[in-house]
Amino acid sequence: MDGKMIRHHIGLLTLAQQEDGAPQAVAVHDQKQDTPRCEQSAAVALLEKLPALDGKIITADPLHCQRRQARLIVEKGGDYLFGIKGNQRRLLQEAQALDALPDTPFLPTTKPVMAGSKPEGSMPSPSSPWPPTSPLPAP
User: Distance (Å, rounded) from C-alpha 33 to C-alpha 31?
Assistant: First the structure.
Protein backbone atom coordinates (compact mmCIF):
# COMPACT_ATOMS: atom_id res chain seq x y z
CA MET A 1 0.00 0.00 0.00
CA ASP A 2 1.56 3.27 -1.06
CA GLY A 3 0.45 6.78 -1.87
CA LYS A 4 1.94 9.16 -4.39
CA MET A 5 1.27 12.88 -4.77
CA ILE A 6 0.90 14.45 -8.20
CA ARG A 7 2.37 17.97 -8.16
CA HIS A 8 1.26 18.55 -4.54
CA HIS A 9 -2.40 18.81 -5.61
CA ILE A 10 -3.85 15.33 -5.66
CA GLY A 11 -2.65 11.92 -4.60
CA LEU A 12 -3.35 8.32 -5.39
CA LEU A 13 -3.19 5.58 -2.76
CA THR A 14 -2.79 2.15 -4.29
CA LEU A 15 -3.05 -1.30 -2.79
CA ALA A 16 -1.14 -3.41 -5.32
CA GLN A 17 -0.04 -7.01 -5.74
CA GLN A 18 3.61 -7.37 -4.77
CA GLU A 19 4.36 -9.92 -7.49
CA ASP A 20 3.29 -7.91 -10.52
CA GLY A 21 2.26 -4.45 -9.28
CA ALA A 22 -1.35 -4.91 -10.41
CA PRO A 23 -3.61 -2.51 -8.48
CA GLN A 24 -6.19 -4.23 -6.25
CA ALA A 25 -7.77 -1.05 -4.84
CA VAL A 26 -7.23 2.68 -5.33
CA ALA A 27 -8.23 5.79 -3.35
CA VAL A 28 -7.74 9.53 -3.93
CA HIS A 29 -6.15 11.82 -1.32
CA ASP A 30 -5.09 15.47 -1.16
CA GLN A 31 -2.06 15.36 1.15
CA LYS A 32 -0.24 13.01 3.52
CA GLN A 33 -1.81 14.05 6.85
CA ASP A 34 -4.24 16.29 8.70
CA THR A 35 -7.16 16.69 6.27
CA PRO A 36 -10.36 14.67 5.88
CA ARG A 37 -9.05 13.40 2.51
CA CYS A 38 -5.43 12.83 3.57
CA GLU A 39 -3.49 9.66 2.71
CA GLN A 40 -4.07 8.15 6.15
CA SER A 41 -7.85 8.72 5.92
CA ALA A 42 -7.86 7.34 2.37
CA ALA A 43 -6.05 4.22 3.63
CA VAL A 44 -8.65 3.64 6.34
CA ALA A 45 -11.52 4.12 3.87
CA LEU A 46 -9.86 1.81 1.35
CA LEU A 47 -9.28 -0.92 3.94
CA GLU A 48 -12.84 -0.60 5.29
CA LYS A 49 -14.30 -1.18 1.81
CA LEU A 50 -12.30 -4.36 1.14
CA PRO A 51 -14.37 -7.53 1.61
CA ALA A 52 -11.56 -9.73 2.98
CA LEU A 53 -7.79 -10.00 3.18
CA ASP A 54 -7.58 -13.70 4.01
CA GLY A 55 -3.96 -14.81 3.89
CA LYS A 56 -2.72 -11.49 2.46
CA ILE A 57 0.16 -9.46 3.87
CA ILE A 58 -0.18 -5.70 3.52
CA THR A 59 3.08 -3.75 3.50
CA ALA A 60 3.26 0.00 3.98
CA ASP A 61 5.68 2.77 4.85
CA PRO A 62 5.87 4.36 8.33
CA LEU A 63 3.09 6.86 7.55
CA HIS A 64 0.63 3.95 7.71
CA CYS A 65 2.00 2.48 10.93
CA GLN A 66 -1.24 3.29 12.74
CA ARG A 67 -3.36 1.13 15.05
CA ARG A 68 -6.53 1.68 13.06
CA GLN A 69 -4.98 0.44 9.79
CA ALA A 70 -3.37 -2.54 11.56
CA ARG A 71 -6.64 -3.44 13.28
CA LEU A 72 -8.64 -3.28 10.02
CA ILE A 73 -6.17 -5.54 8.24
CA VAL A 74 -6.21 -8.16 11.01
CA GLU A 75 -10.01 -8.02 11.37
CA LYS A 76 -10.30 -8.82 7.66
CA GLY A 77 -8.04 -11.88 7.99
CA GLY A 78 -4.81 -10.34 6.76
CA ASP A 79 -1.50 -9.50 8.30
CA TYR A 80 0.74 -6.46 7.95
CA LEU A 81 4.34 -5.37 7.77
CA PHE A 82 4.69 -1.65 8.42
CA GLY A 83 7.87 0.36 8.50
CA ILE A 84 8.43 2.34 11.68
CA LYS A 85 10.20 5.62 12.32
CA GLY A 86 9.94 8.49 14.76
CA ASN A 87 6.19 8.87 14.16
CA GLN A 88 5.76 5.88 16.47
CA ARG A 89 8.46 6.69 19.00
CA ARG A 90 7.55 4.07 21.64
CA LEU A 91 7.16 1.32 19.06
CA LEU A 92 10.50 2.28 17.49
CA GLN A 93 12.19 2.15 20.91
CA GLU A 94 10.69 -1.29 21.59
CA ALA A 95 11.93 -2.59 18.22
CA GLN A 96 15.41 -1.17 18.84
CA ALA A 97 15.48 -2.82 22.27
CA LEU A 98 14.50 -6.17 20.70
CA ASP A 99 17.12 -5.72 18.00
CA ALA A 100 19.80 -5.31 20.69
CA LEU A 101 19.05 -8.77 22.13
CA PRO A 102 21.42 -11.63 21.21
CA ASP A 103 18.59 -13.68 19.63
CA THR A 104 17.01 -10.83 17.70
CA PRO A 105 13.84 -11.52 15.71
CA PHE A 106 15.08 -9.13 13.03
CA LEU A 107 17.50 -9.76 10.19
CA PRO A 108 21.19 -9.51 11.07
CA THR A 109 22.80 -6.17 10.49
CA THR A 110 26.13 -5.57 8.84
CA LYS A 111 29.01 -3.93 10.61
CA PRO A 112 29.70 -0.39 9.38
CA VAL A 113 32.43 -0.12 6.76
CA MET A 114 35.15 2.43 7.48
CA ALA A 115 35.75 5.02 4.78
CA GLY A 116 38.35 3.82 2.30
CA SER A 117 38.24 0.19 3.44
CA LYS A 118 36.58 -2.72 1.69
CA PRO A 119 35.15 -5.75 3.43
CA GLU A 120 36.93 -8.98 2.54
CA GLY A 121 35.51 -10.75 -0.47
CA SER A 122 33.30 -7.88 -1.59
CA MET A 123 33.13 -6.89 -5.22
CA PRO A 124 31.14 -3.88 -6.38
CA SER A 125 28.46 -4.69 -8.93
CA PRO A 126 28.86 -3.25 -12.43
CA SER A 127 25.92 -0.91 -11.79
CA SER A 128 27.16 0.33 -8.41
CA PRO A 129 30.62 1.39 -7.26
CA TRP A 130 29.67 0.65 -3.63
CA PRO A 131 30.31 -2.68 -1.91
CA PRO A 132 27.22 -4.78 -1.11
CA THR A 133 25.63 -4.04 2.25
CA SER A 134 23.27 -6.98 2.54
CA PRO A 135 24.16 -9.78 4.96
CA LEU A 136 22.45 -12.17 2.54
CA PRO A 137 24.38 -14.00 -0.19
CA ALA A 138 24.24 -12.56 -3.69
CA PRO A 139 21.66 -14.19 -6.01
Answer: 6
